[in-house]
Amino acid sequence: MNDSAPKTGALEPVARLGRLGLRAVAGLGRAHLLLLDVLGGLPSLLVRPRLLIAQLFGIGVLSMLIIVVSGVFVGMVLGLQGYYVLSQFGAEESLGVMVAASLVRELGPVVTALLVAGRAGSALTAEIGLMKATEQLSGLEMMAVDPVKRVLTPRFFGGFLSMPLLVAMFSAVGVAGGWFVGVGLLGIDDGAFWSQMQAKIDFSEDLMNGVIKSLVFGVVVTWIALYEGYDADPTAAGVSRATTRTVVQSALAVLGLDFVLTALMFGD
Amino acid sequence: MGNGTPPLPTNSPDAVGPDHADPAVLVRIRGLCFRRGDRVIFDGVDLDILRGQVTAIMGPSGTGKTTLLKLIGGQLRPDAGTIVIDGENVHQLGRSALYALRKRMGMLFQSGALLTDLDVFENVAYPLREHTRLPESLLRRLVLMKLEAVGLRGAAGLMPSQISGGMARRVALARAMALDPMMILYDEPFTGQDPISMGVLIDLIRHLNDAAQMTSIVVSHDVAETAGIADRIYLIADGRLMAAGTPAQIAESESPWVRQFMQGEPDGPVHFHYPAPPLHQDLLA
Questions:
Q1: Chain B interface residues facing chain A, Cβ-Cβ under 8 Å?
Q2: Confidence of residue A8 (pLDDT cuts 50, 70, 90)
Q3: pLDDT at B10 over 60
């Protein structure tokens, strides 16, 4: 027995690593099962569209302010930075293309997803976690109402559908911000700004790729937020930790997936 | 609790009342075992809940009283044993059958568990909207009648954040009764209530049970209040059934453990001090 004690101590870090790995795999399994359950609630959601509309409002409409304001500023910064770089090559007239391509292909989906994760994702996690902590989810179960279908499914599809709309809005106001700086303040030709953008930005190559990214980010951000809330420890500290995890994991997932999607879509 | 295990009755059939074939038994629990991690919550508990009665499940904090309600409601699955409600084995039911059974049960949670984004009226209307297709006018009348029964018809338009804890429990009680269940489970209904709210709740539980011919299971550690309305009391501790009987039988029990619990004595079989080395050792160390 005495011989085994030091061995156990020496192997403790390995054991801890193993436990961490098992916990992570178990969590991943629970998250996937929850997603299946959430998707299974789609038919009952179609019967009660009011639940979806309420979530589209909560996640989508109430996120508009931060999305519009951020989009304008990101577009204006792109206008300034783009003008600085392009003017060195005498290509200021291409500012519209640069601003639009940056927004539609990259910054629109990524920044919007990060903002939605921070604003709506954290709110979803806190709401679900608190519903769990205050026994509202248990109460629904005891009323013979499935809390996943009744609470989580509408929120999931609310987030999934809101994301591409918010991305479109972000990109549109971003382009307007770039136009304001480039045309309004720096004197680039208005016609060149728009005509070059129209000629160079391709619907399937640029716009659709942005849409695909936004849909993927919509699934990931909402899924993480709902899972973290549903799996949270039902205490104040547990909900707080879950909310933090939502924001961190969503940000990492969005940035990592953005690279993967970009590599897949623009790899050729 | 661990050092206060008394030599008490009983998991014997005598302690659990009538035989399981008795149609008067609504909930029959046999050989219930449940553990959380290494901690044993229930170790072979047998008990019967009789139809039409108010049955109290009592015991010290942390003995698994709420867990027992969750096991009865099918929210938790036992490691061994059976829970049969009205002839149906709860843990062998599929999801739809379990939900059908739950429609015949109401549960009053310790916190009330009202949906915070709905007002009082909509909280009570919620199960009716989910499970019935009643016309709005009839649904409104039903909800107002339920609220009238708990004395809160005037609070129908208030949000849960605008009412007191005692009112929230009465609203939750109205909601639990919405579908006219055969049984209501009460989880610590008196905890944290002022004397007036407590009196109202005590009165409501007894009178609603009798008026609606329901069966009530009240989980509590409030001895006097619960014993005052219960037809039958089960005392549980250390994962076992310690005693069972009418309030009068329990009050006359010779068991030191039962006497300590029922009379709230600070020391006895359950020691006041948590196990520790002698005081002087700690102070002079």
A1: 70, 73, 75, 99-100, 102-103, 105-107, 109-111, 113-116, 126-127, 130-131, 172, 175
A2: low
A3: no
